[in-house]
Amino acid sequence: MVSEISLLIPVYNQNVLALVEALRQETTAFLIPCEIRVYDDGSNSETLQQNRSLQGVSGVIYQELPQNVGRSQIRYNLAQEARFEHLLFLDNDVLPVHPDFLHRYLTQAQGDVTVGGVAYQASAPKGAELRWKYGKAREEAPAHLRQKNPYQRVFTSNLLVSRKVFLACFPKNELSGYGHEDTLFAWRLEQNQIPVQHLDNPVWHLGLESADIFLLKTQQALHNLMHLHREFNLGNQTKLLSAYASLKKWKATKLLRENSQWLFPLLKRNLVSRKPSLRFFDLYRLLLLDRYLRK
């Protein structure tokens, strides 16, 4: 049973007024200590102007960092400065699916780490078909399926965690750019035998990137995955590295390299289309992975 809670929202170029209002509407009925911390990590002037209306709002602590510190550090700062032991992290581009979102966490969470899950709308936003399709197929899942492999879908986009566990296990300055902070966090939870509980308490992921931006982020994420692989021998259990190991076993990586010059543009043409293929996306990532591993 959660007896107090800090709601933590790192912001970068996103209007969070609707998210904060949804949380405040539910917290007005709380009988437990609660705070909402919104930290801006170097957003553009338009975003700053929109979110500054949170200054002075009861129960909300709004801060603007003087410079961008990155995805990991901003979360670490929020955790360090939070008043309460239970921390609920939410990304800045989500909204709760259920009106009793916080109540579900307060009454059902057990242990140090609870993951609520993520959900995607029924149809893809125009231009973001690839990101929507990937999220719908690879990230969205009911709690009973996630619980079968509890360390695989640990997303800080919707995570309730004890302050001591987060500060001990979450990467601070070990990764730069986009991607795989959650992978390293989940690996450390598993190494320390800290149980992860999954709940059916999702948030809508609304801020979906265009295919071009998602492909760029995919490249950045693979760089981080390679760093984790070399530094900690981490990631062998991921589907991507497992698939690459199988290709290597059957001596098919040479075939990838020999055909990469014409495959890359062909795959990208499909991935930025209205009907992208996740099989083509996986092949695109394998080609990138092979390129990075040879550096």
UniProtKB/TrEMBL annotation:
InterPro entries: Glyco_trans_2-like, Glycosyltransf_2, Nucleotide-diphossugar_trans. Signal peptide: none annotated. Transmembrane segments: none annotated. Residues 6-133 form the Glycosyltransferase 2-like domain. PANTHER family: GLYCOSYLTRANSFERASE, GLYCOSYLTRANSFERASE 2-LIKE DOMAIN-CONTAINING PROTEIN. This is Glycosyltransferase. It comes from Rufibacter sediminis. The lineage of its organism: Bacteria, Pseudomonadati, Bacteroidota, Cytophagia, Cytophagales.
